[in-house]
Amino acid sequence: MELELKNLYDDFRNANTIKAYAKIIREDALKLPHPINIMEVCGGHTHTIMKYGILQLLPENIKFVHGPGCPVCIMPKERIDHAYVLAMQRDVILVTLGDMIKVPGSNGSLQDARSRGADVRFVYSPLDCLKIAHENPQKKVIFFAIGFETTTPMTAALLDTVAKQNKVNGEAREGALGYIKNIFFHINHVTVPEAMAALISDKECNIDAFLGPAHVSVISGSKIYEEFPQDFNKPVVVSGFEPVDVMQSISMLVKQFAEGRCALEVEYKRAVTRDGNLKAQALIEKYFEKAQNFRWRGLGDIPQSGLKLRAEFDGYNAEVIYKNILPHEPIDDHKLCICGDILKGKANPPECKIFGTACKPTSPIGSCMVSSEGACAAYYKYGNLL
Amino acid sequence: MTKTITLACGNGGEENNELISHVFYKAFKNEILEKSEDAAIIHGGELAFSTDSFTVSPLFFAGADIGKLAVCGTCNDLAMMGAKPKYLTCSVIIEEGFELSQLERIVESMRKELEINGAIVVSGDTKVVPRGSVDKIFINTTGIGEVLQKGISSNNITEEDVILVNRDIGCHGATIFAAREGIEMSSSLQSDCTSLFPHVKALLDAKIKITAMRDATRGGVSAVLNEWAKQSNVCIEVEEEKIPISDEVNGICEMLGFEATALANEGTFVLAIKKEDADAACEILKAFNPHAEIIGIVTNRHVKKVILKSAWGTSRFLETPTGELLPRIC
Question: What's the predicted TM-score (pTM) here?
Answer without folding.
Answer: 0.83
